[in-house]
Amino acid sequence: MMARFFQLIRRDVMLAFRQGSAVTLSLSFFVIVIVLFPLGVGPELSVLARIGPGVLWVAALLACLLTLDRMFQADFEDGALDLLMIGPLPVEILVLAKVIAHWLTSILPLIVVAPVLALSLNLPGDGIFALTLALLIGTPTLSLIGAVGAALTVGMRRGGVLLSLLVLPLYIPVLIFGVAAVDAAIAQLSVAPHLLLLGGISLGSLVLGPLAAAAGLRLSLS
Amino acid sequence: MMARFFQLIRRDVMLAFRQGSAVTLSLSFFVIVIVLFPLGVGPELSVLARIGPGVLWVAALLACLLTLDRMFQADFEDGALDLLMIGPLPVEILVLAKVIAHWLTSILPLIVVAPVLALSLNLPGDGIFALTLALLIGTPTLSLIGAVGAALTVGMRRGGVLLSLLVLPLYIPVLIFGVAAVDAAIAQLSVAPHLLLLGGISLGSLVLGPLAAAAGLRLSLS
Amino acid sequence: MSFSVHNLACQRADQIIFDNVSFSLAPGEAIWVRGRNGAGKSSLLRICARLLKPLEGSISWQGENILDDPENYVGAYQYLGHQDALKSAMTVEENIKFWADFHGEADVSSALAEFDLIPLRNVSADILSQGQKKRVNLARLAASPASLWILDEPLSALDRHYISQFRTRLSRHLATGGMAIYATHQDLELNDSRSLELDADT
Amino acid sequence: MSFSVHNLACQRADQIIFDNVSFSLAPGEAIWVRGRNGAGKSSLLRICARLLKPLEGSISWQGENILDDPENYVGAYQYLGHQDALKSAMTVEENIKFWADFHGEADVSSALAEFDLIPLRNVSADILSQGQKKRVNLARLAASPASLWILDEPLSALDRHYISQFRTRLSRHLATGGMAIYATHQDLELNDSRSLELDADT
Amino acid sequence: MAIDLHKYANPKRFLSIISVIYPWSVWLTIILLGVGLYMGLFVAPPDYQQGDTVRIMFVHVPAAWMALMIYTIMAVSSAVGLIWKHPVADLTAKAAAPIGAAFTFLALVTGALWGQPMWGTFWVWDARLTSMLILLFLYLGYMAIWESFEDTAKAAKAAAILALVGVINIPIIRFSVDWWNTLHQPASVATMSGPKIHSSILIPLLIMGLAYTAFFVMVLIIRVKAEILQRRLRVMQIADLRQR
Ligand code: HEM
Ligand SMILES: Nc1ncnc2c1ncn2[C@@H]1O[C@H](COP(=O)(O)OP(=O)(O)OP(=O)(O)O)[C@@H](O)[C@H]1O
Ligand SMILES: Nc1ncnc2c1ncn2[C@@H]1O[C@H](COP(=O)(O)OP(=O)(O)OP(=O)(O)O)[C@@H](O)[C@H]1O
Ligand SMILES: [Mg+2]
Ligand SMILES: [Mg+2]
Fold first, then answer.
1. ipTM of the complex
2. What total number of domains does chain C contain?
3. FRET pair for D191, CA 20 to 30 Å: which of A146, B139, C28, D47?
């Protein structure tokens, strides 16, 4: 079972890199937001530094939201999801593999470039470190919760907007604690409580996410 | 020929509303950005008002960018683009119909809600008026230029990122003059020069866009 | 009115799929393009439908080369491919009607009736069975008049009854001076249609 | 080893498509599901493949009801549907290999050889012709062992040669104690396969 | 027959219970609303700071309570529907959603109207207001998901999953004012140490709350009844189809 689990992850990661759809969509989106922003609000460093952590987190959230609907949709459209669902892997594990692949392809690249972009927005070193840490700890929640929404809306005609409605409220705590962690680091306060909270949310969604998403998938497909 | 032209627009608009993909994607994206932003950067009214015009324009640009790749892709995937291309409508006119449908479904709804969102970001009345006007005059360029990119990348495996790279540089002038118009209105200066410039860019792209996009389509399909 | 193809060759991804293909069609004639899987039948039909450029050769419609000047050819032919071009957000009738109007002067309701689609007319296109989708596409074809039909596997997914229904319709098309090029692995059992073997060349 | 279906009914969008369908399969047996377009063949096969819930009725595998407890059934069957489940960004071999590994203990290369896919193994799946895609899917089926094959129109787009190739493969599957349920409008000309008419009920 | 179609069609006992409650809810709504509005608008003293605008409170605060309460009710009955497969529970959740959305909308609008004199702006993006807006979106999403599935059994399950996942938003709204300091009033009625406001305001506020609750029960009963009848019709249609 483990072998299949990893094969599925490997396939999804490979497809994402070869097709370039997920990786580049989220990454280029992330970069574009951060590039366009100074053009839009003007290049004053003080303003940029003030809004920097917020902009970075919002951009990450949006990038995740945009790639979510591909999590099951591509496989649904070409019939591969049918074959996956009737295969030997329990649906919960299947969802977990999809979530991990999504995180690796759509979110990890973005965490890798985040420090550079943060630097360009004039964030101080402490803030950048806290940002990277907070992203690493907080973003798995985004994929996990997102999977529930993606599973419920797969194959649905107006799926996209429903998906956003569904997962957005659940993303807000991550956003708020994530930004709070960076702000705390910039203000030389302790970031630990915020990171612990983010970690707690991630663990909680690690337990509930796959269960709910599997139920959703079974539902949408039958 | 005119009848066919309008039929095509009508069909695309109808599909967009029924499937909810384009309309709701851009609209919900736009709203989500504006909702998330204050949560990320904090609710201080002065900061929000300062960055408001930039946030709104950047959000509009991104919403447009996100919906661009659907302009020809959906019809390409189900074979309808084949039938459209060999049909009696000249390809340039076909592109124009697609562009108009894209603008009506992906951008107009967003201009309609923009004043409300601007109000929530605490923009003054003059600024809101200028914003709406600037969006109305400037956004057709986004669809027109976008069509060229969409046509060149239809059916391409890594189309998405190429598309962004192709059209983004061309979007930046619109962004800059668009924000400048709003800032001018807030500062009680004349907005006319900025709007004229935006109008000029739109006219220019109205002439060149369909020609280039038609050439691009012929290229990608054969 | 005549359609003729001279010395066509087709290349896809560094490979010559076929070459030296020539044939011509007069009103009332049909050609059955035959060949093994991968022989290039679909490619040939796409070339005839102006969806693919041939590597070399010429295609002419009423004596004019359509590769240079397709003006008269556009509107004179219809193409039915593997993909169904159906929009799931539109009903069966809306789907057919759009294409019919797009081609001009159409008779949607008799086309619907011809393939027994009246009971399905208000059904959304995505819940159709495979064969029902094919029937919708055949009805699209039948709805607007065109001299030349270019048909890629028109029979797949159809049951026997509709195969014979389609045969009747095609015969009528030919009898009224139409032409057809079709590729299929099943035998359409059309009287007096010539066949073009693509394997011979490879 | 046995597969049996009792009193199955299927509802789709407020309509009863079929009801009272019962049959059973012993090792070495095959059933040809027949019926008009829209009779519910694909729906029946999807129900057997656990992709659709029946309105009522029971399906059992080795005496156990799979609707309640599919544990033993999973892995014992394979499904081939209308959609090809091919990823255009992977080569033919990668596509087959992924599914084979996913199902476990597979023999990819002999499956490739069986449907003449060796020359195409490193070709990306999206440039295949329709029939070549079908062959890839048949090779996927043949690559990993399963007792029951559930096949929805396995012959469409295949040329004569591969139809008989597939018939041979299916016969071997049956001869080695396998079972099959298939729906097709073309005659597979398989000896001793029973047929199940779906039209009768409606 | 393997599944009993009639369990959907015949929740007779349930129908008889709700038809007993219904007249009570109508009368309670009328009386409580009358008394509450009278006390709120004429008896309660104007605020020494806010003047008469404080009276918006008697509409706003109970509406906000209802918005939260109805979502909680929806989530609970969704859970019941999901776990015990009780069809009436699904129907109750479905019927409650539009009422909850209406109360949410009312709280938003009255809050915005109140915000203009109090904070000098109709809207601020603080945590409570934003999460309340998102609650409205959740209600809309819940209603949309019912429309998105053709099959009602499927729709019920999907909507239930959505309602349960979304219930996390309720504590976020409830405690947002404590977690992040914002412009909005912190809790002053339902706090650990008892109400913090004067009884001349508290009493009409509570009466309005009860009035809204009675109104909710009344509309809910009407809607659930309609749903049950409609479903019974469908079951009969299907049975009819089977006969042929
Ligand atoms: C659109 C803007 C507003 C929204 C969305 C909103 C939302 C809410 C919500 C959800 C509650 C219930 C909280 C709970 O039960 O814990 C509430 C209560 C309350 N709101 Fe607002 N509100 C808004 C504007 C205002 C304004 C402008 C004021 C006046 C300054 C105000 C004063 C109050 C008060 C006094 C309570 C009762 C607090 C308690 O006792 O728990 N609200 N509001
Ligand atoms: N997703 C769906 N929702 C509602 N109805 C559907 C759905 N899919 C199919 N149907 C309907 O169910 C009936 C049976 O469809 P099915 O695909 O099982 O037919 P079939 O026997 O396989 O036909 P064909 O020979 O054309 O493939 C059809 O009338 C079809 O319109
Ligand atoms: N887009 C493409 N790029 C490159 N090669 C292609 C492309 N499409 C098809 N081919 C190759 O061209 C050859 C002919 O394909 P074509 O689809 O014309 O065959 P066909 O005769 O229609 O086969 P079938 O009977 O299977 O439908 C095949 O070998 C196929 O692999
Ligand atoms: Mg072909
Ligand atoms: Mg079928």
1. 0.83
2. 2
3. D47
